[in-house]
Amino acid sequence: MSVHRSLINKLLLACVVMFAFGFALVPLYDVFCDLTGINGKTGKVAAAAPERIDRGREITVEFLATHDPAVAVDFAPETARIQLNPGDLQLVSFVVENRTGEPIVTTAVPSVSPGEAARHFMKIECFCFQEQPLAPGERKAMPVQFYVDPALPVRFKNLTLSYRLYRSVGQTVSR
User: Fold this and answer.
1) What band does 35 get if pLDDT is binned at 50, 70 and 90?
2) What pTM was estimated for this model as a whole?
């Protein structure tokens, strides 16, 4: 009888450990992606200004914007694509308009494709660093100041910066 009780206790412990490990995988994956730049994740902290410009090559950067269908906004880049030299500081804006009759707070999640190039996409200033409150019907331009690190391998000629806009959890704007 005690053999069965011991086995049951070990199996229950194994289940608890597996559940805890599965629960911890998402934050561990996010940390791993932030450190390696895999999966196109970019940092949420401002980068330092560029030190040099590589005038020997040009890169095309395209901009995309999508939003969660549950958020009634219009969201788009002002510019679809630009040509730049690695290390050259750029400023582009994304425009968002609240189509609802109530205030909302949004959060933008950035991604760079191809994923391997994400660690070379350096944001100095970005609306994605903080929540963006929007009054009813408000339209605003949200800037992104960035550069592409000259250390970007030469095989990368095209990059895509995309943002997905979500309603923030626990909105801070009062009615």
Assistant:
1) low
2) 0.71
